[in-house]
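[Discussion] Sanity-checking designs against the backbone

I'm trying to build intuition for which residues belong where. Below is a structure token string of 199 positions. I'd appreciate it if someone posts a full sequence so I can compare it with mine line by line.
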């Protein structure tokens, strides 16, 4: 289907804004999970495993992600990746009030691994989608540069946002990794606020 230049221009702007918000939210949630793991276990190895589960899938699934993107289209892969990221976030969110100890740690790490796999597919599809939004090939490089800037700014903004939003725990009056608001909607915060810490 042929699209007008004005449609592409509007879509490019929306895509950059959505990418920035998505990236910032993802890294805010990842920072929150890292704080939960460290505050509950004081085990730095778990924090290393957390970020390894996020990064290492890229080495394995980037090739299959490119093949799938070419086969079914980048739009479809983007939608599927976003659903997978939502599922990973919900998995982490539900583990906070429902699980404790080793079970909670295992589910948090599993959600990070799922997020790493989904992110590899998403980033591959995002890059191809950028090319589809550009009318003039000469503007592709500048637009990819803009996308990279937005993506990396989102990675920088996410963790500080989590820190500023955390505040103080109302029950013990000291800083705590209160991250439910990064995973859940407002109506679910009270439920997760009563969650047991990892022991």
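Best answer:
Here's mine. Compare freely.
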């Amino acid at each position: 289907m042929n699209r007008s230049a004005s449609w592409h221009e509007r879509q490019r702007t929306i895509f950059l804004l959505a990418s920035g918000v998505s990236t910032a939210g993802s890294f805010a949630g990842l920072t929150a999970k890292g704080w939960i793991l460290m505050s509950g276990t004081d085990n730095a190895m778990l924090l290393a495993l957390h970020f390894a589960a996020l990064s290492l899938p890229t080495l394995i699934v980037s090739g299959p992600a490119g093949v799938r993107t070419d086969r079914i289209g980048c739009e479809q892969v983007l939608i599927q990746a976003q659903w997978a990221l939502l599922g990973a976030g919900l998995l982490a969110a539900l583990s906070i009030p429902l699980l404790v100890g080793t079970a909670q740690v295992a589910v948090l790490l599993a959600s990070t691994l799922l997020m790493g796999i989904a992110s590899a597919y998403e980033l591959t599809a995002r890059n191809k989608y950028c090319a589809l939004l550009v009318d003039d090939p000469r503007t592709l490089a500048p637009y990819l540069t803009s996308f990279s800037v937005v993506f990396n700014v989102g990675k920088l903004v996410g963790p500080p946002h989590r820190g500023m939003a955390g505040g103080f725990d109302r029950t013990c009056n000291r800083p705590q990794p209160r991250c439910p608001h990064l995973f859940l909607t407002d109506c679910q915060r009270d439920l997760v606020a009563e969650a047991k810490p990892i022991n």
